[in-house]
Design a protein that fits this description.
9% of the residues lie in helices and 72% in strands. The protein has 243 residues and is mainly beta.
């Protein structure tokens, strides 16, 4: 009887460990955290903000996934150069005026995606998934230019003008990813893919990403990822809940 109980206990423990390992590679989760984007053509800008992800497995091997993020950055720069000469009432030269241009550039980026994926299990510790997504990227910019002509503390002339713009691109993407448990609580993942941003000047980008997830409980994880899409890159740090 004791041996039977011991065998049952060992069997249950083994099953629990396997279930725990599998749960860390779950496709049922919600995630929220910090996101930062670097744009290749604009070194001064690094929009940052919040990103949200969700995933839900709805059959043995299928899942739906979604993403939403809203980022912002603001850059201010001032350029100065000498203007015309300043003279007193006796026509004595006092110096040159200073012409100062101040540029205040603000950008807001909003992105959402939804997709469908297929999961292929290589083992209890390794899974591969394939997904296709559609979505939209909206970029709103606001540029304020101010000119001030002055000499010492005296302002001779000033003006400002504002330029606003909004652009939207449709997103089409396909991705392949591998997820592997190095330990019972630490996952690494990597993937490659293709992304098309469709607007007046459509762009086709090769995409790759790497990431890691650390589980401090079976349900709660810390997630870090880096994604490169040729013209821009994303860095994200999030908290994930497996349900």
């Amino acid at each position: 009887m004791k041996y039977t109980l011991l065998a049952c206990a060992l069997s249950l423990a083994s099953t629990a460990v396997m279930a725990e390992n599998t749960s860390l590679l779950s496709y049922d989760f919600v995630e929220a955290g910090y996101k930062k984007t670097e744009i290749d053509d604009f070194d001064e800008l690094s929009p940052k903000g919040y990103g949200f992800n969700f995933s839900k497995q709805f059959a043995e091997n299928w899942y739906v996934t979604g993403h939403y993020s809203i980022l912002n950055d603001d850059v201010t720069a001032t350029n100065e150069f000498n203007g015309s000469g300043v003279y007193d009432s006796n026509d004595n030269y006092l110096g040159d005026t200073v012409i100062a241009y101040t540029f205040d550039y603000d950008v807001d980026m909003t992105r959402y995606e939804i997709g469908l994926g297929y999961i292929y299990s290589l083992s209890d510790r390794t899974k591969v998934d394939f997904s296709a997504k559609i979505g939209q990227l909206k970029i709103e910019t606001d540029l304020n230019v101010k000119e001030v002509v002055s000499y010492q503390d005296q302002v001779f002339n000033s003006f400002s003008e504002n330029h606003s713009n909004s652009e939207t691109a449709d997103i089409l993407s396909a991705n392949a990813q591998i997820r592997h448990l190095l330990t019972d609580s630490f996952e690494i993942n990597a993937g490659v893919g293709y992304e098309r941003l469709h607007d007046e000047e459509s762009e086709n980008n090769a995409v790759f990403h790497v990431g890691a997830n650390y589980a401090f409980t079976p349900a709660w994880l810390i997630s870090a990822s880096y994604r490169d899409a040729n013209d821009y890159s994303d860095l994200a740090l999030s908290v994930r809940y497996n349900f």
